[in-house]
Amino acid sequence: xxxxLVVADLSKTYAxxxxxxKNIHLAIRKGEIFALLGPNGAGKTTLISIICGIVxxxxxxxxxxxxxxxRDYRAARSLIGLVPQELTTDAFETVWGTVSFSRGLFGRAxxxxxxxxxxxxxxxxxxxxxxxxxxxxxMKRRLMIAKALSHEPQILFxxxxxxxxxxxLRHDMWELVRSLRDTGVTIILTTHYIDEAEEMAxxxxxxxxxxxxxxxxxxxxxxxxxxxxxxxxxxxPLRQLPAALSAYxxxxxxxxxxxxxxxxxxxxxxxxxxLLDDLGDxxxxxxxxxxxxxxxxDIFVSLVRDDx
Amino acid sequence: xxxxxxxxxxxxxxxRTWRTVMQSIISPVISTSLYFVVFGAAIGSxxxxxxxxxxxxxxxxxxxMLSLLTQSISNASFGIYFPKFTGTIYELLSAPxxxxxxxxxxxxxxxxxxxxxxxxxxxxxxxxxxxxxxHPLWMILFLLLTAVTFSLIGFIIGIWxxxxxxxxxxxxxxxxxxxxxxxxxYSIDMLPPLWQTVALFNPVVYLIxxxxxxxxxxxxxxxxxxxxxxxFFLLVALxxxxxxxxxxxRLKI
Lengths: 308, 253
Ligand SMILES: Nc1ncnc2c1ncn2[C@@H]1O[C@H](COP(=O)(O)OP(=O)(O)OP(=O)(O)O)[C@@H](O)[C@H]1O
Ligand SMILES: [Mg+2]
Known about the structure:
heterodimer; A: alpha/beta; Rossmann fold; Alpha-Beta Plaits; 2 domains; 6-stranded mixed sheet; elongated; B: mainly alpha; binds adenosine-5'-triphosphate; binds magnesium ion
C-alpha cells in the first residue's frame, strides 16, 4: 500500500535543550488507522505538532502525500485535519461560526451541506447556534473533531480523542473513526487507553522517550509478543507436581486446584497435546479448561516499564 | 492566495468587535465627548484661536489621531495575542495560510475598526464644534496610512507580548505619552524653542501635523515631510513583521 505520510530522520530539541524526538522514521499508509502509543511525555504531541506545522523541527523531513511540510506547506497542510490534545476554543463563538471559520481558514469555499453532515455525524447539529461556552466538555471535544473535518482532510490526527468522553460516546467515536476510514481518510491517533488501540488500529507504533521503539501490524504484534496460557481446573487438588511433568514448567495454584501452562504462540510445537497426554498418563483429571491471551496493555507495559 | 482564509479571519475579527461593541465603539466615543466638554467647551472657551480656528475645532484632528493610534494598537495586539493566550492559535499555525495572508487579515480588520471609529469620532466632534475639511482625500490617506501602520505595530506587540501587562504597557507607557506630547492639544510652535526641537523626535508629531493640515491647512512641519515620515514608519513596521515571520519569532517553538 502507498505511504501518505513519510517522516524521515526527524529530531526536535526544544529551546530548553530538551531533546523530545530523536531520529524518528515513520511511514503511514494511505487509508489506515495508526495508533501511536507512549507514556506521558514520550513525544507524541511533539511529533504531531511538527507534522501539522505548529512546532518547528530541529532536523529531518516530513512529506505529506509527497509534499514537503515546509517547502510545500500549503499543499501539505490542506490535506491534514488536526484535533489537538488540549481543548481550546473561542468561548463566545457559535458552533456553526467556528466550523465555518475552520473551513475558510483551510482555503475551502463555503459548503453548508458538508458542515451540516459533519455536525450531524457528531451529534452537534441541534447545538449549531449555541455559544461554545455553553457546551459540555465532551461536546467541545466533538466540536474540535468537527472543526478538523470541516475542510474534508485526507489525513486526520486525533491527539487523545477520547480523553474525558463517556463510554457510550467513546464507542460512537470509534464508529465515526471507522466510517471515516471507510471513506478513505487516513487516521493517526494517540491514546492512553490501550483497548482503544486494540479495538481500532490497523497498525501500532510505540514511542518512548522520543524514540519509536516499535511499529507493527496490530495482529502481528499481538501474535509476536502475545503469550497464551492454558488453565486447567483439576478434579482433585494436587499437592505437588509429578516429576514426569517437570519439562512443562507448570504452575500449581496455592490450593492445588489449578494448573497453568504458559506457552508461546510463535513456537513450532506448542506442546498442548503432549501435555494433555502426559496428564492422562499420570492420572491427573481435569474438569474444565480455558486459555487466556496477554492483551496489548500487557505488551505495552512490558515494553516501556523496563527502563523506568 | 488563500482568499477564503483571509476572509474567515477578517470576518472573525470583525465579529469580535460586534460582540464587544460597548468596549470597542461606545467607550472611545464617550471619552472623546468628555475631551470636548472639558478641553473644547470648559477650557477651550478661555483659549484664543489657534491659526484662525477656535481651540475646540483645532483639537479635533489630534483627538481623532489619539483614538486612531491607541485603538489600532489595542485592536491588532489583542487580535493576535488572544489566540496565543487561549491556545486557539494552533489552528492558524496548522492552516495553509501564508504570513502575508495572516497579516493582511488581522491588520486589515484592526485598521478597518479604527478607521470606522475615527470617522465616528469625527461625526461626534461635528456635534460639538464647527468642522471643515480642506483636503478630504489627503485626510483619508493619512487616516489610512496611520491606521495600517499602527495596526502593524499593534500586531508586533501582540506577538511579542507574553502577558497582559506587556500588552497594555506599550500603549500606556509609550503611545499615549507620545500622542499627548505630539501636538494633539497644541501647536508645536507654542512650545519653548528647545522643546520644539525635542518634539521633532516624536514620530507622532508628523502624523498629527499632516492630519491637521488636511483639515485646516495648518501644520507644524511640511506636509511632504509628514507624508514621508508616515510612509517611513509603515516601512519600518512592515520590515519588523517580515522579520518576525521569517524567523518564526515567538510564534512557533
Ligand atoms: N515547549 C516545550 N518546551 C520544552 N519542553 C517541552 C515543550 N513541549 C513539550 N516538551 C517536553 O517534550 C516532551 C514530550 O512532550 P509531548 O507533549 O510531545 O509528550 P506526549 O507524548 O504528548 O505526552 P502526553 O501523553 O502527556 O500528552 C516532554 O518531556 C515535555 O516536557
Ligand atoms: Mg500529548
